[in-house]
Amino acid sequence: MSTITFKKIMVGFAFSPNLKANVYESIRMAHYFGGELIFVHVGSKTPEKESRFKEIVTSSPIQPEKTTIEWREGNPVNTLLQAGEEFKVDLILLGALKRENVVKFYLGSIARKITRRAKCSVLLLINPSVERNPCQHIVVNGFDSPQTKDTIQAAFMVAKALGVNKISLVEEISSSEVAVAIDDDRSLRRATLKKERLRRREQTRVKDVVKKLPSEFTTDVNWTTQSIFGRRGYSIGHYAKVVRADLLVMNSQENLSFIDRLITRDLEHILAELPTDVLIINSRGNV
Amino acid sequence: MYRSSPYKDFLVGLPKNIFSGFVVSLIALPLGLGLAIASEAPPIAGIIAAIAGGMVVSILGGSHLTITGPGNGLVIVILSAIVGMGEGDLYQGYLYTLAAIILSGFMLFIFGVFRLGALSEFFPTTALQGMLAAIGVGILAKQFHVMLGFTDVKGNTINQLTLMPSSIKNLLINPSGEVILASAIGVMSLVFLFLYARIRNSVFQLIPAPMWVVIVSISVMYYNDLVLKTPDVLGSNLMITLPDNLLASLPRPDFGKILSSNFMGHTLSITLVAVIESLLSIKAVDKLDPLKRRSNINKDLRALGIATGVSGFLGGLNVVTVIARSSVNVNNGGNNRSANFFHAAFLVVFILLFAKQIQKIPMPALAAILVYTGYRLAAPENLFRIYKIGKEQAIIFLSTLVATLMTSLTTGILLGILTTILVHIILNKSGVLFSRNWLKPNVLMYLEEETGNYYVSVKNFCSFLNFFKLKAKLDEIPPKAHAIVDFSLCEFVDHTVMEGLNDYSRSFSLQGGFFEIIGLDVHEAKTEHPFAIRKSLPETSLFNFQISLTKRQKLLQKLSTILDWNYLPDPVSNYGELERFLYFKTKWINFRYNNLESKSKDFLLFDLSYSEGAFIAKEDLRSTFLQIKVPEKIPVFALDKENFMTNILQLSGLKDIDFKNHPDFSKRFYLRGEDEKAIRAFFTDNLIYFFESHPAYYLESDGDSLLIRSKERLASIQEIKQILAFAEELLKILDNR
Question: Percentage of chain A with pLDDT > 90?
């Protein structure tokens, strides 16, 4: 098991009203993770643009260790993904959009495509701000998958870096695993018993994963588990919203065929309505 | 509940179920005949449906207390199928309809196999009520004329409604002797049906009202035959005819039209109504079950499908679960499916032994029963009740009602659904909320690991469109648990959902669980939530208790100042503790009012509005109760005056605890309870002497408190004082121990 780190962070930027907040937030993240920053702008490079951007970067209270600014032209999705591979970045930062006058966030089409296709981890920020909003509670998925170990470890790593002291590990158990249709009192009792067994099994599994983590990650962190019977990918997002988590850490999608996208599953539920900041861990390069 | 083996329980309960099945068959006979006649089918078709339903569903079904047979809702659809497909020849139409019934039985079965019982959740409550009201109007409009002795009024519901004054005019101007007798029987029957619930006499109430109507009207006919020597005083069109030989005259269903769109349309509406009526009834009966069992609706649908198929082949109508007969079953002590079987068995006996007498039933008497049924379905109270939930609900109700009357049942309910959606969009001033989120999952349910509570959170909106998702989750929660439903992330909750949740909350509290709804207060502040919990007190404002106190209320107020107690005339809907008492096991509590409470909270005197039975067998009651806290734990028991009814119940297996040394007490009182030893120890000699020497009240203990009732009506101030004195003396005896 190789450790996931975020040493190279790429940020795509555009000249939107949110620019300052995005830049400040990116610099903050790079600072916490102790990494270098690569800003990429897809579009023509003009002297005004450049000076405006540099002004913002220098005005930040925290100064990044190392920044590179790249100006490229072409299709935004492909260009950004290509740049990411060229620089071998560990993490891509993307900002979400807010739905008109409702407190609901979603990903724009470009960000969504990048998230689906990126070969590294992706951090989706719903509410970038100039001032710092402390992060206090991380929710991380714990379902049974080869990637989950890395994801849980990354969550603990992020928790250390950001000073978070509460982590909830959520095991989503698909209702189809219960395999008891509830019709009457007897089937209800059977289903309840079966669920209890599944819950115990999943908890032991997740707890084992955490116990095997290097102890420097797990000390001083208050972690709990929670099993949820429901649709995978959906329930955890709703849960994160209910417990008012500040960051949701998820596995990246294992394989996304056309049909997967049609019947919205797993990540797609989250991408359609971001409950909070979301960090998608892609450990495929590591496994 | 599961102390002994199920077989032993079954055998012990058998006498009770036979008895209950018998009482149900008494109401099923007239209703079966009547409903068949109302749908222009041969009268025997209704009885065949009841027999097939009772036999098949009792063996294969998945519910416990339901009675199956021909249903009210079906009258309208079957009538339109018979008339529509017969094209003038009613008997041919009936044969085509039998084919449609068989096919709809098959469809019902498929519904059950694919577990589509949840489909019924897609209908908004108010639209369904509008549809039921339309069915009621339809039945009433047609049968009103028959009740007055005119059988030749034709046309659709609207025509028949408009012809009602002319029928009355015909009756008043220059009537024939036949019409006078017929309308006298009809009108008297109707008046009796309306008054029946007022007569509280256990012997009299043993026979259901429709059976009284039948018995008395048969007697009138025999009186005409034998004493007045005027046989055939009513023409054959006003009398029932049964086939002479049942087996030889089985009709053959005619599948000739099976491919026509007309036939499929009728089949679909029959199936639709059968599913809706059955599921509504099953849900309602589950609420009445004293053992609080949950019915397996999909299994029941499969059984109903098979029963409908069988019934159709034998020439009978559709089989659905029926609420009125089921509630009679519950009230008479039926406790498992065998009651349904025995109801069918008794019907077979009636048809075989009393065919001749049954043919003496005059149609106006049956029509009166149907008019009463129709009235109960379409009663103006329903509209008032819905109006109180919200003006928009009244709009939905009325538009469904009118649409169903003007067009057909399926079009009507579809228009009702559309109206509901439209109303929701108007209330939200936008449809985006619905269109964007309809198909998305919106419910999260998990067992909180720290507290052990079930937490349910609902997002976006929750209305009849997606209530099934919430229901699926709620159904997974054991009803003994503590459930919290949080709507704070939800922007809109409709009336169907609020009412559904109310049912959940009820069944949770009945089984010792706890069901809490949170997060709705946010809405009222933000969006003027239109359907916020208004369900809790359905009957407050109409009678407006505060405005002027009645004479009795003023006296109660005076009494409260003398006693230095608190008096609150307003109705209160928190009656949670009362449901623990045996007395309310099969009853439905509405609210309590005129609360008179002692400062120490040990004495609570109140009037209670509650009801027994459902639909046409429903009786609304108001009685005065006194609840007192006892100084220490006492055994759970119920003490009642011994009467004819309790004697019958004892014959059918209920146990009465008698004391050898106190023959007088044992004869006068009917005492029951689980823990006989503790009860015997509790009833000491001086306590028994106390009961012997005082007026007999109904008395029940739930361990911590005693519930005392004098009569099944409101007590006068004088009687209240007597109850209070009785209770004080009783407490003194208990205190001295």
Answer: 0
